[in-house]
Each structure stands twice: as structure tokens, then as C-alpha cells.
Amino acid sequence: MMKKLKYLLSISILGLALASCTNNQNNYKYIEPSEIDNYRNYYEIFVRSFYDSDGDGIGDLNGVTKKLDYIKDLGFDGIWLMPVNKAGSYHKYDVKDYYEIDKEYGTLDDMKALINTCKEKNIKLIMDLVINHTSDLNKWFIEATKAKYNNDTTSKYLNYYNFSDKQLDGYKKYTDYYYEARFASDMPDLNLDSEDVRKEIKDIMAYWLNLGISGFRLDAVTSYYTGNPDKNKDFLSFINTEAKKINPNCYIVGEAWTNTAEISKYYESGIDSFFGFGTDEEIVFSMNTESSGYYSGWANKLKTIANGHIEAPFIGNHDTGRAAGILAMKEEKVKFGYGLLSLLSGSTFAYYGDEIGMIGSGVDPNKRIGMLWTEDKLDGYCANPPGTTSTEYVFADVKTQQADQYSILNYYKNANYIRSSYDAIKKGDYKFVDHDSITILTKTYNDEKVIIAINFSKDEQSADLGSKYNVKETLKVSKDSKVKISGNNIKMSGYSIAIIEEVK
Length: 504
Ligand code: CA
Known about the structure:
The protein is an alpha/beta fold and 504 residues long. The chain is 32% helix and 20% strand.
């Protein structure tokens, strides 16, 4: 126990030492979560476009390992790694082999090094688990179609996929029969009713959890049994039960891109989290109406849906497009949007490059372009994914933003650090009270209470709070932002956020 304490102490000292590397607005402190705490600030990484460590133009696992200090220094203590298994496409959501690392990204030893370094730094590493479908070049599908061809009815692989003699909805033609393939013809859907397939999935989860990863992000949950939420829920229960037999503390977050009623049902499976699709819209609506209504309603709704589990709000990801684009590419909105996200309970998710305001919309590859480490693109820069049609960068590179204490990057860092300091922010219940144009959000968790003043307007606002407060910490969207309290009166620049405390 002492040893562990010393270890935790040493990593938090390391955290502080790192914190002084970049230019901060204030002396915010990053507070380490306990090792078993699953409420984290997550950072989603598309490995191919993140950091190229060996100069072949393709981001790799060693590049991620190399940048772990950067990630942790920003106050992220969880990573969602998009698929890294051997696959057919550039995005790797079509797995050929669930036990191999794709050669483009490195080796199994590289993966082990990444896992171990994450552990040393108290970063939770979760992997994408893509089990709705495989690649058509997965051994299982090759064996199944071979058996079909040879009229071999004894092959167990025939039962791994859904075959039919008739054209059914969501099925593709293959010689003289059909197979289910909802996403693309080269991504056949697995038959998740098959006991053999379930055994394979158990083995895959056990293999990676035993290597030391902290959990999974489940791809395409609503497509497990298309149009059948009850069966999806049952299958999610199976996943949750089996994964937690191996590591009771592993963290699982599901991608259920659907309505809140359906997500509410899926939480009954016991899965820790489902992504908060729609968070971006509610944040944008609140900014557009310059009032708390949409935001407060959504915050409470997320909590209700999660029903004691962990909410997982986010603004943008590799499918939806980037946060900066959603927030109109206006620097102050991009910052304030993340500030609002960081005040929501649960595990928040940011997408690599969002911290420098990268943009990308239209075809998928545009949303997954190379991380801009330096302006000259000489440091770790990754070639654009095939099919990219636009590679515009609106804001400065990482290096430039690190040196600017009022950059988007340093705003993200400050927001993450403040979030890390209060369990009440990460886990608490909400109470919103509007005082004229200023909203006071009080979050409580066990004995901890934190009071947050938010100005949803783009302009300066002031209000009478009815009693005296001090300003503890502020999140400023620009150099000129100010939050001042005199007597009972608070005056806040547009889009500012402040942690305040009552004067007793
Ligand atoms: Ca490389």
C-alpha cells in the first residue's frame, strides 16, 4: 500500500513538473484520479494521423507512446484508441485479425510498451472493440465462404455469419447466396447468436484485458441486432458480464447513435457509459440563445438517462466532425464550448486535434487528418488518409499554441485541470439558478460542493447574487476576459466561467 502511495505521489509530482512546461493562465493544479476511478478526461486518438515516429508518413503506436507526456500534461487521463488490429481499410474498422496489431501501426511489443507506459502515467487506455462485423478477409469469413463453396455443412464457421438463400434487408449477394453486411459489402455482420462467436469475443476481450488495457469502446451497438433494441441490450449485458469477470474495474463505453429512450434501455445492461450524442447541439443552442436552458436541460437529462452510471458527453468525434467546426470556427466559442463540456458529469471525450481547434467536415478522411504539431509539419506529421479532399487548418499548430497562454490548447488544459480538482464537477448532481444573465451552477457530490458562475452571453453581464462570494478560479476565453465580484455583484466578460465560493 505504501509503495502504491509513493508511486502515486511520484506521478503527481511528475504531473506538476510537466505542468510548468507550458504557459498557463493561472496556477491551476492537475489532481490525479485514483487508479480505479473511471471518471476521466478522455482523448480519442486516430493513430494513423496522430504522430509518426519513424518517418514513413503513417502515425504509429510508438508515436502515441512518445506523446503520452503531452496528453497527460493537457490534463487528459484516459485514451480511446481507435482500432489498431490488423484490418483492410485505412480506418481499420474492418478487422482481419483481432489478436494482431496492424503492421502500419507497429508491433505487439509496441502495443505492450504503450499499455505499460499508460499504466505508469495513470492513463486509462481503452481500445475500440469492433464486433458487429469483421473484414471479408477475416479468416472466419474466408472459412465460412469456403465451406459454402465446398458444400461442407460441418464447418463451424458457417454459423459465424448470417447467410440466406434470399435477398433480405441489409444483405449482399455472394455468388448464389446472400450474407448480412449492413455497413459495406466487405464488412460482413457477425452472427452474435452463435455460441462460437460469443466464445471468440470472450477470448478477444480476455486477451487484451490481460495484457493490461483498461477497457473497450464498443463500435456500432445499435447494429448488433439491427432494429431490435431488446436483443442489443441482452448482448450488451453479455459483454459487460464477461469483461468484468476478467477485470471488474474495466471501463466500457458504447457507441449507440440513437434516441435517448433507447440509450436509457441500454444502460440497463450494466455497461458503464454510452456516448452523449446531441451534447454538441445543446451547447450550440445555449450559445445561440445566450441562456442556460438548453444546457441545463441536457445536463440533467444525461444524468437521468445514465441512471447512476457514467455519462459520456462529447462535442465531436471521427464520425460527426470536429468541435471547432461545430462551434463555427470562432475561437471564443470553441473555448467556451469545451469549458461547458468540462463542467458536465461523467467521462468527457475530446478528439485529437480539437485542443488546437482543428477542423474537418464532408467525407470521413477530412475529419481524420494529420495532427498539426508544428507549422512546418516536420515533427511527426502524418500523411492525409486516402480520400481526403480538404486539409485546412484554421488555428495555429501545437507548438505555437503551447507558447500562448490564451490559446485554445491552454484553455483545454485549464478546463481539464479545474475538472480534475473537483469530484463534484466530475460526478455531482446539478442545480442551476439564473440571476439575470448569469447562471449559477452548484454541483454536489458527497460532502463536496462547488459553485460555478457561467455567462452564456457573448457580451459582458452582471448580476446580483444575493450574497457575497470570492472568485477562486476563472476560465477566460481571451486575454481581456475578466470576472469581478464586488459586494453581492458579479460582473463577467462574455463566455466566461468562474469557480466561486461563498464568503462566510
Ligand atoms: Ca510511422
